[in-house]
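Justification of resources, computational component.

The compute hours requested in this renewal are based largely on the per-chain cost of generating structure records like the one below. Each record pairs the submitted sequence with a full structure-token output. That output is archived, and it is also reused by downstream analysis tasks.
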Amino acid sequence: MRILVLGIGNLLLSDEGVGVRIVEALEQRYLLPPHVEVLDGGTSGMELLDVMANRDHLIVADAVLTGDKPGSVVVLHDDQIPALFSQKVSPHQLGLADVLMALRLTGEFPRRLTLVGVVPQSLEPGIGLTSTVRQTIEPALKHIVTALRNSGVIAMPVEVACVGNE
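The structure output for this chain reads:
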């Protein structure tokens, strides 16, 4: 089982960095087994091709432009994700769409695909999330933990792991 949790975002454009902040929270707060890789993909596009290839489950955290109210958390699975690329969904959708298309063409497309997206309030230049989007980190993280559980992975909260080792 090869699983990748990928956070995408530009930390210099306020809420655009939410995907990166979500995976940072995952790494800080949960212990994961060695077959689960967590990666800050930043604003990379095709550079991520090799790391995304042949995954059993690819979980992507990103800002998404769905028309829902800012701070909404959107979870999409498998075929729902490429279908949404016909509209502008993510500020990175061109890079992500290109990588997913290339993976499909080469036969290296992930067996399962989950997108945990957060609708941004602001994409203006600035470091830090708006308070509206900062409040979505916890619910988005819960969706990622659920996606991992659906792949048979138990994400152990760090404080539980530490107490158990005392």
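The radius of gyration is 15 Å. The helical segments are 18-29, 49-52, 80-84, 93-105, 131-134, 137-150, 158-164.
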